[in-house]
Design goal:
The protein is of the alpha+beta class and 146 residues long. It has one domain. 42% of the residues lie in helices and 24% in strands. Strands 1-2-3-4 form a 4-stranded antiparallel beta sheet. A hairpin with a 7-residue loop joins strand 3 and strand 4. The protein is rod-shaped, with a radius of gyration of 38 Å. It comes from Thalassococcus lentus. Pfam families: N_methyl. This is Prepilin-type N-terminal cleavage/methylation domain-containing protein. Keywords: Membrane, Transmembrane, Transmembrane helix. InterPro entries: N_methyl_site (IPR012902).
């Protein structure tokens, strides 16, 4: 008997047409079901992450609005009465500043020296339909004649 024939018999490889009794591996149905389950999980993770991204973008816009409003109020306080009360910044932000008298809740003996005003800055993105960002502060100015 040739050496390759002995090797063939020693490896005990058989090409039988009968199915194996212990079926290893996954069937096509099991594979499809697992892929469907994974895709459902991935879609839900994607939708949650998309919602988080939208909320993060909205928070970033609100932060920008707050920063612009704070900067406008600071500039108005420092440069009063020379500062503008309305405008558009870099074609992106529409803003205006309103000033109205403010009456404190309690009186002090120093009130005759000051005139209190509430300064409100209102900022919105140009063309936006969202509610504008409003920031207010109360200032004490010298009373006229002092």
């Amino acid at each position: 008997m040739p050496s390759w024939a002995r090797f063939w018999r020693s490896t005990k490889l058989r090409f039988d047409s009968q199915p194996r009794s212990n079926n290893r591996g996954f069937s096509l149905l099991e594979t499809l079901l697992s892929m469907a389950a994974v895709s459902v999980v991935l879609v839900s993770v994607y939708s949650v992450s998309a919602g988080l991204i939208d909320r993060q973008a909205a928070a970033q816009r609100d932060l920008e609005l707050a920063q612009v409003a704070r900067a406008l109020l600071d500039e108005y306080v420092v440069t009063f009465p020379l500062s503008d009360t309305a405008g558009t910044y870099k074609g992106t932000w529409d803003w205006f500043i309103r000033e109205k008298p403010y009456v404190p809740d309690h009186k002090t003996e120093q009130d005759h020296l000051f005139r209190f005003v509430e300064v409100t800055a209102q900022v919105n993105r140009s063309g936006s339909t969202r509610a504008p960002y409003v920031l207010s502060t109360i200032l004490a100015r010298r009373a006229p004649g002092i």
